[in-house]
Q: What sequence folds into this?
């Protein structure tokens, strides 16, 4: 359950909708620069902001851009906070998450986000 006070949350991920194409695993998020599935080192991006469409857009853009450019992009959006999970399992954050999200993770489970 999510209890949000005037906030919206959206997660974009390349984990759920993927398939094999000519021996390569691909997913549904298309990079507009290439017209192909994004070659991203981010597994998922979760964004909290004031409106759901904004959260969804920022999460998708960051995931398509990848870890370095995606984090830089999100850091230039002062109205949001985000959690990024790399394909290697590293958890990155940006924005003011104090009191909003608590991340619980270990090497045997995916990250669990408790949104306050």
A:
């Amino acid at each position: 359950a999510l209890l949000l006070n005037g906030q919206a949350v959206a997660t974009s991920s390349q984990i759920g909708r993927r398939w094999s194409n000519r021996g390569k695993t691909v997913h549904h998020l298309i990079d507009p620069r290439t017209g192909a599935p994004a070659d991203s080192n981010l597994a998922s991006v979760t964004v909290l902001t004031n409106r759901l469409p904004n959260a969804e857009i920022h999460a998708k853009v960051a995931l398509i851009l990848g870890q370095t450019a995606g984090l830089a992009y999100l850091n230039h959006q002062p109205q949001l906070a985000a959690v990024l999970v790399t394909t290697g399992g590293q958890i990155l954050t940006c924005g003011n998450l104090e009191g909003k999200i608590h991340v619980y993770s270990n090497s045997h489970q995916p990250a669990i986000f408790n949104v306050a």
